[in-house]
Design a protein that fits this description.
mainly alpha, three-stranded mixed beta sheet
């Protein structure tokens, strides 16, 4: 009998929170509640920005796409995490499933990073270049920015996935995480990790540090413009429109920087899981709340829609 040469694809075991059994039950209900709130908040933003003529500006165009990205982003991770929390042992994820989860996770993460940068540019154009705003932020320009955000995500995900998942892995690798994230999977490879590690660092610089630098530059120009405004009321209005975006940027880039720009020796499994839980579950819930809490245009559109619904009953 002739033996056929074939390569067996490994199955990955997601450790999840199976080593913290006492916390699994409470964590399941917390994550489920947060996920449902996230879906409700972002769906409401999508409906409002689409239905209300007052919210058809470029800023809300980007916000609508950001909400779409975050719904997909959390849905890629949370349902699987909830299923794993319902059990007290590591769950198997196929090789193809791990590739798919990481690929989609990277596409959406990079797209969100680029969208946040586009939103900062929109604020810069509105405040620092008001006479040219309609040209700089035309409908075509906004669509190009959104398409570029998705394209950057696809290019990065394709590069990372092809480099990481062609590496040799043990027969039954255990990922000490609740998702197939880049670093936990990369650390399991037995040899040939150097090229992938360089790729991860390069992408981190290009898609985290460079966009963050552009956002900081945009807001430095905005701050300089704010200081020239003599009216205190106008200055407060401008600051109010920017503060929400700044807070969302700080949450997103802060957790991403701590997670991906750190030496392997200094990393902690528990800390990595807590940070990942924060930026995959908590942050997507907070973002729509941050954007709408002090936004009179959004709250006004919501009140108008609710009144219209009541009158139609």
């Amino acid at each position: 009998m002739t033996e056929k040469n074939h390569t067996m694809l490994p199955e990955f075991f997601l450790l999840g929170f199976s080593d913290l059994r006492d916390l699994q039950g409470p964590l399941f209900w917390v994550v489920l509640l947060v996920y449902l709130i996230t879906l409700l908040d972002h769906s409401l933003i999508i409906i409002l920005t689409q239905a209300s003529p007052a919210l058809h500006s470029p800023m809300y165009f980007f916000l609508r796409h950001l909400s779409m990205v975050e719904i997909l982003y959390t849905t890629t991770i949370v349902p699987r995490t909830l299923a794993d929390l319902a059990f007290s042992f590591p769950r198997v994820i196929s090789f193809q499933g791990c590739v798919a989860q990481m690929y989609v996770f990277i596409v959406l993460g990079i797209s969100e990073c680029c969208l946040l940068t586009a939103m900062a540019y929109d604020r810069y154009a509105a405040i620092c270049r008001p006479l040219h705003y309609s040209t700089l932020m035309s409908q075509q320009a906004c669509m190009v920015m959104v398409a570029t955000s998705w394209l950057m995500g696809i290019i990065t995900a394709t590069t990372h996935s092809s480099l990481i998942f062609t590496l040799p892995f043990p027969a039954h690798p255990v990922i000490p995480h609740f998702l197939c994230d880049i670093l936990p999977v990369l650390r399991l490879a037995s040899t040939g990790k150097r090229k992938s590690e360089i790729s991860v660092m390069a992408a981190t610089v290009v898609f985290i540090m460079v966009p963050f630098s552009l956002i900081v530059t945009s807001y430095a120009c905005i701050l300089s413009a704010i200081l020239t405004i003599t009216s205190t009321q106008s200055r407060q209005k401008v600051f109010s429109t920017c503060s929400s975006h700044l807070l969302v940027v700080s949450l997103f880039f802060g957790t991403a920087t701590i997670t991906y720009i750190q030496p392997q020796a200094g990393s902690s499994v528990i800390r990595d899981r807590v940070l990942s839980l924060f930026y995959t579950v908590i942050t997507p819930m907070l973002n729509p709340i941050i954007y709408t809490l002090r936004n009179k245009e959004v709250t006004g559109a919501l009140q108008h829609m609710m009144k219209r619904q009541v009158l139609s009953l």
